[in-house]
Amino acid sequence: MLQRRPPCFVESETRRDGYPDAQEVRLILSSSDYCSSLDIGIALKFFVWIGKQPNYSRNEQSYNVAMKIAGLTDLALSCFREMKLGTCKPTKSMYFSIIASLCGKKGRKVDEAIQIYEEMMQAGLVPGKELVEAYVGCLCEVNRLSDARRCIESLHKFGFSIPLSYSLYVRALCRAGKLDDALALVDEAGCEKHLLQQYTYGSLVHGLLRQGRAEEALEKINGMKQLGFHPTVHVHTSLIVHFFKDRDLNRVLVTLEEMKEHGCQPTVVTYSALLCGYVRLGKVSEACDVFHRLKREGTSPDFKTYSMFIDCLCGTGKSEDAFTLIPEMLRDGIVPSTVNFRTIISTPVNMFNTSARGQRLNEVEEHNERCSGASTSEDRPLSASSA
């Protein structure tokens, strides 16, 4: 039946009854998790076949792994429904896996996600913050705002504070481009408005800048300063990205000086914004200085930072400078990808591609937004002294 045996299958065949047990089935499925699509397909066929054999019953762990490697296919939903009809009960991690898959941009199934999320609530399982972010973010992107709000308003039953709950909603609205809805939500917060602003102003500033509403963003920043809250590193990084897009180097330098005055240490995302911004302005030597300063100050560049810098350099025809980064990557224990080499080799074709440099800044901006969300979503307000 199987055209090719999954890894670990030979060891499983040593059992007397000829069939692996539930633990071995889980290992077989897990070993295919990061293999080729052919291996995954064979493993899933094996999972279906073994479930039909006598004297074998699946357990929660094997179902969970099968749903994980099935990804966004209908088989994941089929496994989940079959499991509920049997003796196995879905665990919190299973609900998270299936809902996160259904909420993904590729193969999104919103109605099924809503149904399964409500089942999880009825089962009394407490949703984690990451699951709420994925679920509410999906609902905002497809304009199911009433469903998103109903989810947010139910979180207090599971111990979520009101500011944290609504900050998740505001952030999801900002990421979905529904900035006016987010601003209106904060304004109607009533007595919780001041605290909610502390949780969400970074997301709001970022969203305003992305929509080109810089004056509103600066007004909000100044308002928070008057309350004693200085911009976080992620807000500063958003400003740097915006000023580079406006080719306003003076305001970039002012922002950096303000960060220094308030002891706000740049992150690797901030340095990435500086690298791509300087290259976009044709200031390659300044970009190289920033890169070496990054390494001197102990903030090791990651693969994404190296790749962004390579792309930006190659976008201006500086393939020789880009190629010198390859040995540095290796010395830092980072393996260059084939895309890195292809980008360097194909530089003569792309040397006048200015749109690629703009795309690099957009990627930095999106990365900064994700980092900002992760850092401000804790169940506590910002403190005036910590900003």
UniProtKB/TrEMBL annotation:
Belongs to the PPR family. P subfamily. PPR repeats lie at residues 91-127, 197-231, 232-266, 267-301, 302-336. Residues 362-387 are annotated as: Disordered. It holds the Pfam family PPR_2. This is Pentatricopeptide repeat-containing protein. InterPro entries: PPR-containing_protein, PPR_rpt, TPR-like_helical_dom_sf. It comes from the Eukaryota. Keywords: Repeat.
